[in-house]
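Sorry to interrupt, but I need a hand with the structure work. Leave the record below and I will have a look:
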Amino acid sequence: MKLILLLFCLLTTSSLYAQETETKTVLFFGDSITAGLGVDKSQAFPALVQNRIDSLELKYEVINGGLSGETSAGGLRRIDWILQRHIDIMILELGGNDGLRGIDLSSTKENLQQIIDKVQAKNPDVAIILAGMQVPPNLGQDYTTEFQNIYPDLAEENDLPLIPMIMDKIGGSEELMQSDGLHPTPEGHEVIAETIWEVLEPFLD
């Protein structure tokens, strides 16, 4: 009987230890901003967030799910493949290329909603953080305003935390933006990583 109790205690302790040390996942799902176009991948903000997590000895692995040129429709087609892996936290950064191409914004919003739905269906306990984007005003003020409103609307409708403008602190800076005016420099990625961390940190157990 004592042997049985000892084995039970060992198995229970081992199970609890495995749960406590199990590494969780943080998915950054986005376009070239997330992918780190024009900089080394180690300089892109997902890698910088991983560095911060590691420095705090938190058990999270960051997945960079960025793809250059990705639209919301492309992200919707890709998400099922991504979800073959369990995701605990997702930062959704998509839609910027839709705006640059003048895509109908009702389609953009619907695509983002379907991505949210698929992720939540796969893991009801997932934490989704929505990253707001902005576009140049060359398509007109009405389009620009409607585009920017997609993100707070989705955040409110789905009760999601929102990073209002992920690029807001770096736009227009020659030091923080590459010469194309669209993609961050390594220093710009550092600023974005700090912006994301302010919202992400409370979700890291």
Q: What stands out?
A: The chain has one domain: 23-203. The longest strand covers residues 24-30. The first helix runs from residue 2 to 21.
